[in-house]
Amino acid sequence: MNRRTFLGALSAAGAATMAGHHLAWAAEQRRIKPIGIQLYTVRDALRHDYDGTLAGLAEIGYREVESGQDQDKPPKEMREALNRHGLTSPSYHVDWKRLGEDLPQVIDDNKIVGRTYLVMPWIPEEVRNQPDGWKHAAEYLNHAGETARKSEIQLAYHNHWMEFIPLPDGRLPYDLLLENTDPNLLKMEMDLGWITVGGQDPVKYFQRYPGRFPLVHVKDVHSIPDAASVRGGRFAGENMSILADVGTGVIDWKRIFVHSEQAGIKHYFVEHDNPKNSMETARVSYQYVERLRF
User: Fold this and answer.
1) What is the pLDDT of residue 25?
2) pTM of the model
3) Domain 31-291 is of which CATH architecture?
4) Quick check: 119 and 67 in contact, CB under 8 A?
5) What is the DSSP letter of 41?
């Protein structure tokens, strides 16, 4: 082999190695699959045409839905409706009061639908405002979580922004919930939009509490409100104009989802609390999430 042939072979080998590394890198990129949607996003469409709305979501590409009482049919009807359209529903938002005496019935109903998660979406203001209200809430959630776990159902908690308004002692209610609940009895469904509004970084929580976040709400915002207005309690839920279709806002989804494995995320639910056109929001958001690689 002369010098020119040798250098050519060496160059080709180097190019092949680089190409191999590039292909390996590309293969390692992850995507979100299956993609779910919180049916609260399309609640008005469901009231108008329940079966047609589920069919439309399935046609867009969604394979999982999360719902609450206002978006559900009776359990058997719900299961049949989901089956008709190739959908599953792994989780359900349950009212605070129904975690008490009604919990066994709630569990039975949701097992008929095929769900494995019950999510507490909102702690009532009268509970939160009691002395040590957040700690009492943690005790209540631990108890409910233990009951649910005996039936092979996992309880989880969904945040808004108020969990990131400091208490008089400076601590955050979200931290109190995480620290005062058993990680086996209470997981977290992190709303990635509302925690951003609250001025906190989801990734830091994923790092501090790995595996605690099996569900997330994929919610985008056009802008992040002034931190002082949120922390001072001056931000209100009526300020829904900041919400955006997923991918059209300011949240850096790649930065968050590259930590999905560390967080323990298994289910991703697109959500928009107040869309102008709910099915269009569902379509635009799905298309962005489906193309996302991280």
Assistant:
1) 47
2) 0.90
3) Alpha-Beta Barrel (3.20)
4) no
5) G
